[in-house]
Design a protein that fits this description.
4-stranded mixed β-sheet, Glutaredoxin, 2 domains
């Protein structure tokens, strides 16, 4: 993929960023003004402490949205992290079927989500995704919520049968993942390529991807703004 900037792209991105932040800021101000009017008229049905709590949460969300938007629209060097060449997160000799079966049993026993990622050690995007999943903020969030397993696909010619049995497609490239909820039910896959360009994502965006799964039961591309 070409990382060079396209003329006019920067200004368009800045305008989009400004619109998003302005919308959230306007929403916060509007809600605050609305409830202030209710209080002044003696018509509010909730107490002031609750309103202050909700306004604080909106401000917090505004800040998170601004950070994610800045990351999305800011130029970022491809492969900006340092990967240890000796670190090979995909075991080329593992029995994929047994690995997945044991992982599903363990995740259910521990009441955790399970994310099985199909990839390879030669794949920069796969290793970058693994790196982000092992950074401190992501580990702190997922420690008691998730179980992660990597399955090696070689040059896309290994363990294809294991992927196919789960409904995982390698057609859009790797890494590609399948996620199960704590009850062992299928939550979904990233067959549409949500994780394929992982080298372009930050750890914060991968954390957002994980939080969307745990808190919203949704599989959304890490760089999506919603």
């Amino acid at each position: 993929m070409n990382s060079l900037a396209v003329p006019g792209e920067s200004s368009a991105m800045q305008q989009s960023q400004t619109k998003v932040i302005s919308f959230v800021a306007g929403l916060v101000v509007g809600i605050a003004a609305y409830h202030a009017a209710l209080i002044a008229g003696g018509k509010t049905t909730v107490n002031e402490a609750y309103l202050l709590e909700q306004e604080a949460r909106l401000l917090e969300l505004e800040g998170e949205n601004a950070e994610l938007t800045n990351e999305l629209f800011s130029p970022r060097a491809v492969g900006g992290i340092v990967l240890n060449e000796a670190d090979a997160p995909y075991d080329e000799t593992a029995d994929a079927s047994a690995l997945i079966r044991d992982a599903r049993e363990l995740a259910q026993a521990e009441d955790r989500f399970l994310m099985v990622t199909f990839g390879a050690n030669w794949c920069l995007d796969c290793r970058t995704l693994h790196h982000h999943l092992t950074t401190e903020p992501v580990v702190d969030y997922t420690r008691d919520l998730f179980h992660f397993v990597n399955v090696d696909v070689g040059k896309l010619n290994q363990n294809r049968d294991a992927a196919a049995r789960l409904g995982v497609s390698l057609d859009r490239g790797i890494p590609v993942a399948i996620i199960f909820d704590p009850d062992g039910n299928l939550l979904g896959t990233t067959n549409d390529g949500q994780l394929e360009p992982a080298r372009y994502f930050s750890s914060k965006q991968i954390l957002k991807f994980i939080r969307d799964i745990a808190e919203r039961r949704m599989i959304v591309a890490p760089d999506a703004i919603d």
